[in-house]
Amino acid sequence: MSAYVINLVYLMLSAALLLGFIRLAKGPSLPDRVVALELVASIVAGIVGVHAIDTGVASFLDVAIVLALTAFLAAIGFARFLERGGPRDD
Amino acid sequence: MTEILVSALLLMGAALMLLAAIGIIRLPDLPTRMHATTKSGALGTALIMIAVAFYFAEVAVVTRALAIIAFIILTAPVAAHVIGRAGYFVGVPLWEGTIKDDLKTSYDPETHYLRSGFEEDAPKKPAASKKTVKAKAKPKR
């Protein structure tokens, strides 16, 4: 795999991760932060895929599976927490 | 040949992820941000996983990559729906340029009651909707 493409993809995904973290830090309300958290999880799953191609170790895909699963469960949990009206300090 | 295909898929996936991140940082309110992230984020991950499947081209890896894609495509809309619903009910302010808010006439933010518009008790409906409009005008979401 050409190192140029891999590095470019890493750079783009890192920039995306940085922008997601900015929204996570400053997002005005809790649902904004939950959306940013979901985006960060899916970007990290992408980075795991790129890293699997980079190193040639296919076992990294299991990490991506677990990450996608926990991100979904976290989103559902946060949404139920919000709808039930739990205590929150945006 | 495979290298060109994998490179193109990786670059497209990363570009979609970057687009989603730019969208979440630039767009003005919760539903528009979700509009940016859920679709292009899921598609970006799916493209990167397709690239992984083409790169390794083994049965075990392809199966896992397809499992990830199926899982993401199944769960992303559900999570987006649930978060969007919770965000609207919690009262996250919409962008001031919003021109259409269909839930506004059928959701009462004080009683947290969502009417479908097909209720049986027809005489009660106009009164309830009038009260909803009055309640809506006061808090100014």
TrEMBL record, chain A:
Topological category with respect to the lipid bilayer: Multi-pass membrane protein
InterPro entries recorded: MrpF/PhaF-like
Bilayer-spanning residue ranges: 6-22, 34-53, 59-82
Predominant cellular place of this UniProt entry's protein: membrane
Keywords: Antiport, Cell membrane, Ion transport, Membrane, Transmembrane, Transmembrane helix, Transport
Recorded superkingdom: Bacteria
Signal peptide boundaries: none
One term under GO cellular component: plasma membrane
GO molecular function: sodium:proton antiporter activity
Cell location: Cell membrane
Family: Belongs to the CPA3 antiporters (TC 2.A.63) subunit F family.
Protein name, entry field: Na(+)/H(+) antiporter subunit F
From TrEMBL, chain B:
Annotated GO MF terms: sodium:proton antiporter activity
InterPro entries referenced in this protein's UniProt entry, alphabetically: PhaG_MnhG_YufB
Coiled-coil region list: none
Source domain of life: Bacteria
Transmembrane regions listed in the UniProt entry: 6-28, 40-57, 63-83
Keywords: Membrane, Transmembrane, Transmembrane helix
Region: Disordered, residue numbers: 117-141
Segments of skewed composition (Basic residues): 127-141
Protein's name according to its UniProt entry: Monovalent cation/proton antiporter subunit MnhG/PhaG
